[in-house]
Protein 1
Amino acid sequence: MKKRSFITLGLALSLSLSACSSVQTEREAVGDNPSPTTDTPDAQSGVTIELLGSSTGESDINIIRDQLTKNGFTVKLNLQPDYGSFKAQQDAGNFDIALSSWTTVTGNPDYAVRSLFKTGGDYSILADPEIDKLIDEASTQTPDQFVETYKKLEQRLVTDKAYIVPLYNSLKSQAFNKEVVDEKSIRLSKSRSLPWEELDFVDKSKRASTPLVLQQSASTLTSLDPIKGNDGSINMLNTNMYVRLVNLTDDDVITSKGSLSLNHSIAEGNSEYYFLLRDDINFAKVENKAAVDSGERVGAEDVVFSLLRAKDKNSVPDHRTYTLHEHIKNAEIVTDLKALEAVKQAGGNKTVKEALEQGLNAKISALVADKTQANNKQGKYQVVKLTTTEPFPQVLNYLAHQSGGIVSKKQVEKINTYDVATFDKNKDIPYGDQNTVTEGATYNNTLYASGPYILAYKNDYEAVFLKNPGYMKGTEHEPRISQITVRFIKDADSSLAALRSGEIHVYYSVPETKYEIVEGDSKLKLQTLPSNAVAYLLFNTKNREVAKSEDLRKAVLYSINQDEILQFYKNHKRKAFSTVSPLVKTGNELKADPAKVQEFLNKYRESVLQKPQK
């Protein structure tokens, strides 16, 4: 999930990030001494390592500091109060190692590495051709083939080059008030964010009159344009504001259920993907802080527009998810019914048409280009064909990601009239700008939501989401509750107190150290399962000694004792070797080794002493 977010990037853990209430500019973060280098030692001195983190990860910071200190390092802490300040320091290069995390919210291993470690990736600060080659090679392989490739990738990333230091794999968790929330309605999925449309009260009479209250720490939202953010401030929010072509089941299987597609099919060759669209979703808009049906149907032209802009790095300024969709070659509306009959489905004898018709009440009698002419009951459907640059079945996992959310072509083009190349953040207002939904002088809500809920307004205290009145009415997927309120609560103790007092009803991403308190409260229910979230230390690969010296990075690597970290968390966390660990069992394991620490530190010291003195 998410996006490099601190501690819970990706979004499966998306609601546990700290608030971005006081964000430093890069100039302020850098100050008068931009990107100072690590202290260079003489033969006898210690080595200073600057460790960057945020207050939400203070326990991890303390453990890592103690382990490094025990192995002879002098640790300089750069502890920031919130994620925004942390990110400003990271962008300014004010760190040697930064406490980071990634959650694979798509359920596929390619997502666990592409954005983070590939040259030019959305969140990558690495540039290693061998890693690039291994990522691309694994992306085209089947699960039985890619295990060995990901093992080599991990070894290059961790053992050989020490670009990261793995810490642990977390559980995914949430707690809720079972006296208020119907236990049967609340899901905990390995990768997917919490589906709001299924949530319900124990007392069904409260659906229309009582808000269901959730929480998250971040009050500043990166963007409500689904392609412009991939972090914990917006992952769950955008997932519930924009419908996608496919979804993930709770155990990470691709499904059309609850998505914009009634069915989907992969053609022979694994490069062509077909989606049969449903006709019962309209975009919601906000008028006078109330959700209303815009009257505009979500259709094929919106899908094509959304996918093509998702893959285009230059479609919007500050595009943060384009690498997730770079395998999309084209998206188009299919109007020739015979074309579906002429193509065989991958791995079977059916035609694509037969596959798309499976389970339909009315077979396909006609395909229409105009979304207003679609009528599923009469057999008139819309079909979108997506073509990939190469055989790449993992493209479906990316379409299930929040960045695959379908936006209104008409509305986005109406709002985004600026020139991307000359975009001025001080005067141009893009679609999804969080300031437009924030109460006050800047409020001018222009959102069009294709999902079950739309954000009506927010302030520093909470964000109010209202049911989309045009979303799958009369089906099992129509939202039950009229209002979902997301309360902004910065720290874990306050969130837990709010849950226990009844101020909130669901607490997403409960820290492992709070499990016993939740389990001891008779009105609360704790849900946990293994997650795809991995915490790690990221080395600065620019302007620091750790960027230049593999020996120095490896000395840090072998200082970290995962057993001690797991012991602190009462074994509610698991060992990890990379962000791929929860998805692919490579057999790689990091073992602390004080002897290796001293070996690599000595090599580093020797290399420093041999450098010509200026």
Protein 2
Amino acid sequence: MYRSLSFAAVHTVRPLYRRQLGTTIARSLSTQTAQNIKTNTKPRRLFKTISASVALTSVSLGYLLYQPGFTGSHVAAEAANISDFGASSPSTVVADLKNEESRIAISGRPTQELLLALGVYKLCTFQWLVEAAPHIIHFAESVHLLQPVLWFVKHTFFEQFCGGENPEECVETMDKLSKSGIHCILDLSVEADLHLDDSHVTLDDGLHQHKYWREEQRANVLLGMTKNCIRTAAQSGAKLSAAKPFAAVKVTAFAPPELLLRLNNAVVSLEKLFYDNQENGLISVSTLERALQQSLPPAQSQDQEAQRSAVLGQLKEKTQHLDYLTFRKLFSLEGPNRDIWWKTQDQKTEDDVLLTNSEMEAYDRMMDRVDQVCGLAHDLNVGIMIDAEQSYFQEAIDHVAIHFERKYNKFDAQGNHSVTVFNTYQMYTKASSKKLQMDVEYSKRENFAFAAKLVRGAYMVSERKRAIEFNYPSPIHDSHEDTNTCFNNGVRYLLGELHDFQEKSGKPLSASTAPIVFMVASHNRESVIMTVEEMERRNILPTAGVVHFGQLYGMQDQLSYTLGKNHYSIYKYLPYGTVEEVIPYLLRRAQENSSVLGSVGKERSLMWEEVKDRLAGSLRSPAKGSISASGTTAKSA
């Protein structure tokens, strides 16, 4: 089953690396959308709806483009410095968060920016238009009209949801956000092919000798771009605030997708071996000896066989049973006994073993790239957020993330640490709660700080569709309510662990001593309020630096600005890249988070009321520098 899933996954992800952008996007999404539009929508009605939608955004865009000084940055132009706000009680913060009429995030923004946001949000509410977007782009490319489409995307969706085309362009946005107590996670959002041709290939690097040489060429290019992202985050962080700057990375940027699929398959196979042979969460050494023949390649020499017997013999002297964490460590691809278990004959193929020798060498090169990224970030005091991705990559990504957490989040002899690496947990998966608790326990055993970002998940539609297509159980919770419960329980669990540590140690929590540091990355108002209330109940201060909040740039600003005003640690996920490179990110956000985009009705209503008040002249601007009731510096249109 696992081999068939890996084969299917290869054919699912390969289109993401094709050269033609339009083909990439169109083939990575279902053609059923185009068929639905063709069969279920009357042409005249479709034309009228498209025309009305584009007209609305075009009017807004035309107005703001002719306004002097428009930069496209939708951050309050004269937001009050965070030092101007006094400390608030949790009850006051909760009241602010519950106040859906608050204009804290919009009262200081120029009118033209509000019009842009209104137009973009309106387009996002048309679900059929969101689904048709990749096909429209593909059609525009086929008739040589891609550039006008990209121009429109850049001056609408790109301006609303992205920080710029390079990290330097993001600095101004980061500066403005910091004045409202909001920090940034800088993200190189490159998901399409980099269009490497023969002129970019350096044959003297030795990679051309390997199976994945072109993908690894691409990975080396992305490595350099990611390092630049980290340096920019470090420079901006040092300049703007004392808060730790962050950069987001995707493990898929540093390895061929086929290799990650093979690695994922190997990790899953070992996990299956354990759970198929365990009793009450333990596997006996004797059972392990017999079970190994099911997954790992047989010993290739008498010496290798003797080494395996010696390792198992030492285990028997220490214990008769192993739990999963001990089992996982024993067969780690980064452990001292790797070659004893994993090395095989060079002529062995993918059909013979979980990982061939050449794949192990490619794995080592991938780990070296990630190590360079994490090492640079550690030296510059930048946090690394390792993004979650599709389930057929996720076990491999988790394997990489936990290894570098163990290396770079290590406690020193004095009980201090500098947390660098955060892994992401998608709580819409059925296995997420168990995985979260397992990794916390592993961090305790290995003496490193557990660092995590909790999200609901961004691939729900595609994951469920793929499970149906290939006939395996969906990894996603069956209902939205189950996902909410899992997410909130995960937050409560981590806060409970922090509370217990604080009670036992008798010391206040701090970012450099706490065993757990995590981010609540959610647009859900109820989850944010629950976290604030639980922090109060558990006596965890918002200024301790152990609990962060996160939202996407351009979304749920009301929550972000309220948290920033009240001295909670809040970050905006700030993607950047050329328009062509960022389009897949924009499409995925629109498709996979359509429920979020569709729920901004209240935010749109507030924006519209603000615009009407300004146009009607009903708002009298106070003297420059005075603070409005919503907590921001007032600014006339």
Protein 3
Amino acid sequence: MHAQHENIAQKTYAELVSLIDSQEVNSPLQKRYIDLYIQKARSENNNAELIDAYRKKMFRSPESTQLAYADSIYQIALASQDNKLISIAYQTYGTVYFLQKNYKVSVENSLKAEEFILKTNDLYTLHKIRYSIADVKYYLGSFQDALEIYQECATYYKSQNNINSLLGYINSIRSISKCYYQLGEYQKSSYYNNLGLEACQLIKNKTAKNNEESYFRQSEGIVQYALKNYESSLSLLEGSLEGIRNNKDYTNEHLTYLFLGKNYWELGEREKALEYFESVDELYRDKKITNLDLRQAYVFLIDYYKAKKNLEKQLDYTNVLIQIDSLLREDYKFLNNYLHTEYDNKNLYQYKEELQQQIETNKKRSLYLYIAGLLVIVGIGITTVIYYRKQRLYRKKYEALLHPITLPKATAAVEISAESEAEAEAETADVNSAKSVEIHEDIVKQILWQLERFEADKEYLKQNITQTQLAELWKTNTSYLSKVINTQKNKNFNQYVNDLRIEYGVELLRTNTSVRSYKISSIASELGFTNTRSFTNAFTSRTGLKPSYFIEQLNKDHEA
């Protein structure tokens, strides 16, 4: 181990940086390499490398400690009297304050950084600084000003020939596209998205390339929504989601859910849209991450439940929207013409009061209805009877899940005969099925064989699996696959996959006590569902029970 330590210590700074970048973020080994980087720079009195090492340490540290690292960097730079290092120190402050959403102080430090770097000939650092200034302008709504700076940066980075400049160029192109989108110039935004996808092909690392492409797909999906090409938008947004999730980029995950919901809303699929808007809400309540775009989800949620005349839901989402607006007002306190929407801040409070008054009025009306005491007693009695009947029914369904009916085994001779007969019947059914759906018999058999493998290998547990994906993988078409599933399984593709997941989930919960302690959302993810609501609906549809009830009964029986 000591010899290995000495071997690492002898490496160049470039080699250490390569080792750091090759490790998983914040893994013990990556932290060790960063510490060795710091020790090496400190022992050699190399201020430039020491500052770079501290920056690497800082950006992998909790937000609460980042400012302390920035102070250390500033002290090192000031002592060196090196204009470039002083510029980097100010830019580090700018980045930290930007992440803390203190945009005014962030841009002040970035301008200071620009002042010092102009005293040098370091164009790369100059454009990094100008890019960060453009970021602040973008977040403050000055899209035209930000666009001009991003374009300048893209021109510079394109003229260079190294991986950092390539990534700088790709980021600049994406930011240019976002500016044109905000300015309503959707065709130009689309042009730069395609330009960015072309540039991504130059990235040699496959994972990095896929990640960068995900954001351009998302951006183009949003543009296509604005152009009212809803089906195209859905395809692009769904294609971007995996890469964004892999990055744990919750802000953009929010944004993708929002526009998926908006597309389905425009297509008239309100229930499907609702699932995505509620996913935005779930992520917000969990992560407390929001921005100006994401508040739109709550406008849709409020409108949806207004149409349903559900006052409690309207009030709940109105309260959350007021909370979000409070956070946004703090983040965007320097933003002009902030939050001019149909649900602006003043109207929200008035709307909240009206909802509360309506709910209170409804409560009073309910109180008058309760005067009819005899009817209330009868109603309670009926409700109680129904409740206990339901409980007995639920218990029967629960018992049926635990003890499925099995047929007694016959003699070996009978089994062989029955098996042969079953095979013959299956072959006849396959042929009849092929004729009924006008598909060649061999194709039907091939698809059925693929379905058997699909079930045996539990491929249905993968998330976001689609009929189109399986058809491509099995070298058939979606029409054949759909018809075979409809005729052989007596259900559509989604029902077929969901039923397999639920059957597997029931057995998993029944036999594995540790899984029962998982959150419902975790169990849903384990079974391939993308959100809790979809899992709950599928489980209830298949078993007649809610998953929470089933787990509760399993735990009670286990304790007994």
